[in-house]
Amino acid sequence: MSTLKYSRQRESIKQFLMQRRDHPTADTVYMNVRETFPHISLGTVYRNLSLLAELGEITKISTDGPDRFDANQEPHYHFICRHCHAVLDLELPYMEDLEALAGQAFCGSIEAHTATFYGLCPQCREAAAASDQLA
Question: Is the Cβ–Cβ distance between 90 and 77 less than 8 Å?
């Protein structure tokens, strides 16, 4: 396997994601990285996000809306709003014992797990409650 050539654009994309906790879309990454690299294309941003995800340096989170990206590689859980598609980190301890429990019901080897929770984020829940009061 050949060594991956260093790219200032790719490094800028990764650094941008590392400073964020809001799981931005590729379009958001593009708009912000363009401030440093005005000639970068949206395709270059998508290719680099895919490469970084493939390398395990970031996580791609699929939603019913656009994909989101997360540079936090520590085990943690996500919440996805079913209305606005926001992705939020849940302040919930990672449950390593869940892997052992699952292993008891599975003949193979379980090494990790992910869990995503769905519902309404605080803003969408508040808006829904307000519209119910007006109806």
Answer: yes
Alpha helices (H) in 1-135, listed in sequence order? 8-18, 26-33, 42-54, 97-104, 122-134
Reported pTM:
0.86
Query: Which tens digit of pLDDT belongs to each residue from 27-64?
Result: 999 999 999 999 999 999 999 999 999 999 999 999 98
Q: How far is CA 114 from the centre of its chain?
A: 12
Query: Following CA atoms 79, 82, 86, 92 in sequence, which dihedral angle do they give, to the nearest 10 degrees?
Result: -10
**Cβ-based neighbours of 26, under 8 Å, separated by 6 or more:** 42, 45, 46, 49, 66, 67, 69
Q: What share of the chain is helix, strand, coil (3-state, %, to 5)?
A: 40, 15, 45
For residues 66 and 44, what is the distance between their CA atoms, to the nearest angstrom? 17
